[in-house]
């Protein structure tokens, strides 16, 4: 029996979950990649996902929350490398286990470019990004660094917060500011010339 009148107003709304939720998140990433965060709208995502705007708002209270959840859903390494060597672990983590992984993943780098301005301009988005996305993306790198410390490969007083940010920070700077391609050779240069000397006092 379909509820009517006052009963309809209080009837439970269908939840957006499972495959449908993933379809909407995928559509969000597509729109984000096409137009960037500033020009992304709930209407545009609804159209791309073939859903109503009301359906989106039943699940996500704002554009910021929708985009953050979509970014949170993007792939992270299913297996953190553990080769026994910091250099090899970092190479695998940031160059990936195959083409299109790590910093070589043009889609992931492009999505990051799409939200840079939003992080600076939208306080709600920035707070949600730092709470939900950053820890997820940093966790594999932190695990690699902490293992290296336990092995004695990295000096005990090393500032891991600075060191683990150095590699992606330098590579992305060269990609976005200098227009270089993110290549395994670039990653290797940063590891060998900057990261490892700083982590080990040059030894």
For the CA atoms, what is the radius of gyration? Answer: 21 Å
Reading the helices and strands in chain order gives HHHHHHHHHH
Q: Biggest sheet, in brief? A: none
Which topology of the largest domain does CATH recognise?
Tetracycline Repressor, domain 2
Number of helices: 10
- On the 0 to 100 scale, the average pLDDT is 85
DNA-binding region: 41-60
Keywords: DNA-binding, Transcription, Transcription regulation
Region (Disordered): 1-20
Protein name: TetR/AcrR family transcriptional regulator
Task: Write up this protein.
With 203 residues, the chain is mainly α. The protein is built from ten helices and no strands. Helix 7 packs across helix 8 (123-151). The protein is elongated, with a radius of gyration of 21 Å. The model is unreliable at 1-14 (pLDDT under 50). This is TetR/AcrR family transcriptional regulator. Keywords: DNA-binding, Transcription, Transcription regulation. Residues 18-78 form the HTH tetR-type domain. Residues 7-20 have a biased composition (Basic and acidic residues).
Quick recap:
This protein is mostly helical. It has ten helices and no strands.
């Amino acid at each position: 029996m379909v509820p009517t009148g006052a009963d309809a107003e209080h009837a439970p709304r269908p939840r957006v979950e499972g495959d449908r939720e993933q379809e909407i998140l995928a559509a969000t990433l597509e729109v984000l990649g096409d137009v960037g965060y500033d020009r992304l709208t709930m209407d545009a995502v609804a159209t791309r996902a073939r859903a109503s705007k009301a359906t989106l708002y039943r699940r996500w209270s704002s554009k910021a929350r929708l985009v953050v959840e979509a970014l949170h859903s993007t792939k992270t390494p299913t297996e953190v490398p553990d080769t026994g060597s910091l250099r090899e672990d970092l190479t695998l983590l940031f160059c990936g286990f195959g083409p299109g992984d790590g910093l070589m993943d043009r889609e992931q780098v492009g999505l990051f470019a799409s939200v840079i301005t939003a992080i600076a301009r939208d306080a709600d988005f920035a707070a949600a990004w730092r709470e939900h996305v950053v820890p997820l993306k940093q966790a594999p790198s932190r695990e690699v660094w902490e293992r290296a410390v336990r092995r004695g490969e990295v000096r005990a007083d090393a500032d891991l917060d600075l060191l683990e940010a150095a590699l992606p920070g330098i590579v992305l700077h060269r990609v976005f500011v200098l227009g270089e391609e993110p290549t395994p050779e670039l990653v290797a240069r940063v590891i060998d010339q900057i990261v490892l000397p700083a982590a080990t006092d040059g030894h």
